[in-house]
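Board work, copied verbatim: Glutamate--tRNA ligase
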Amino acid sequence: MASASGSPVRVRFCPSPTGNPHVGLVRTALFNWAFAKHHQGSGAQFVFRIEDTDAARDSEESYAQLLDSMRWLGFDWDEGPEVGGPHAPYRQSQRMDIYEDVAGKLLDAGHAYRCYCSQEELDSRREAARAAGKPSGYDGHCRALTDAQVEEYKAQGREPIVRFRMPDEPITFTDLVRGEITYLPENVPDYGIVRANGAPLYTLVNPVDDALMEITHVLRGEDLLSSTPRQIALYKALTELGVAKETPVFGHLPYVMGEGNKKLSKRDPQASLNLYRERGFLPEGLLNYLSLLGWSLSADRDVFTIEEMVAAFDVADVQPNPARFDLKKCEAINADHIRMLDVKDFTERCRPWLQAPAAPWTPGAFDEAKWQAIAPHAQTRLKVLSEITDNVDFLFLPEPVFDEASWAKAMKEGSDALLRTAREKLDAADWTSAESLKEAVLAAGEAHGLKLGKAQAPVRVAVTGRTVGLPLFESLEVLGKETTLSRIDAALARLAA
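↓ predict structure ↓
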């Protein structure tokens, strides 16, 4: 795919460094990145830009966090921070002279004008318009002020903002996701582009940067759809001034919905990207799920690699309907990606949790050989990597941490007799074979009229502290004969007490 003029695809991702990255924002980055990667063979490029003109909310900490998040997700960019490029700088706070120059050109050409209306006057006129059943947007009061009126406002000490002059005609464009859309002029009034203190607004800086960076396709959230006719009119003016080469093609991505069918907001706990990193989601698992929020590889396949997504991604296949974020499905897809890992890769990805200061065992208790032996079995059980500590703690703690509910559930009447028989059978078993250990517990169960499932429950709790966990007999083999029998003895003593 190319732009309207035939030039290669250039897309951008331009977040503001305000707090933790939001999963809806990540979905936007993913679709832009995948779109560029899909067309990379024809010269497509992905531009990463930082919109940091809001000094009250932006922070260097959030900026560093954004870059770290992009790297963690595996998003590489052709132009932007730390990479550079022909359109540098890529932080809006470093481009203020550019915006001032463009605003001046818009004023000189008559595409913009100074507005002296006070907030009280604006509110009063809007309320009157609503009462009369008319559109309540800006009414164009300062569109054609006389020199005398301007001098009077200046004498009153009023500081004007700069407004862009919208055309008095409908604006129609074809959205890549939603098809043809038309906005009537009465619904898109003149709008501010520069504050009274001279600071440029998003409504100016975003289109100006897109124009100067030669962005051909703008893929962004549905919440920005209403600003598109304003930007299209501004692009036309910028093209007349020689600032822009063309108007980009727009595609507005569907809302990501949270609980209660409300738009997922930054305040929702499940919205924070950091939450998923801390819980041990794989970047590839999280991105797989986020890609399903508005797009699909095929009707009968939810799990795929990022490479497969890139190969198949087409903006035309994005659905306009809101997509609901389902945490359980996200976890299930992540679990599939954990199982898709090479075992060696899996063992390394778990290390931040296994060797963290918060791990429940002392640092010296961690046994690398035991971890390597149990890892293939642990890999089949996890939904997220942070679950690894609860699954393997019995290997590295001096004694199991008993879940009292699990103890009560497993240690029923007759459990002591079963455990004594199981100990006897296990003592005689071949400890180089998990199958031999299984046969020992099976034989113990048969001696007491129990099937394997019932027979192994007290053994599992005695040795691991829990009723569920990793495959029992492989776990016993890794734990070793001496420790296993010692823990069964401790459980028998507890039952006797």
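The CA atoms of residues 190 and 461 lie 71 Å apart.
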